[in-house]
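The data are passed on as follows:
___
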Amino acid sequence: MVLGSLVVAAFSRFREFRADRGGADLAGKENMIAALRSLQAMQQIRDPRADKPSFQTMKISTARKTGFMMLFASHPPLETRIERLLQG
């Protein structure tokens, strides 16, 4: 089950990168980068309700995954997505 979760998460991240590339092809690379940067700015806004136990029991987390836990992430970090678009 854990191995399956890793494969599903990796495929999901791959699809996000492809969607970013498709969005850049349709709307333009600069517009796609601007959209991702807008999402990044929205992530900085904190909702005080998110720190309550009721949110934590629903597994809603605004914590950033790093290291080993990134293998289970369904979406790559926005910084990585922006960097890939900048590189071409």
Summary: The chain is about 65% helix and 0% strand.
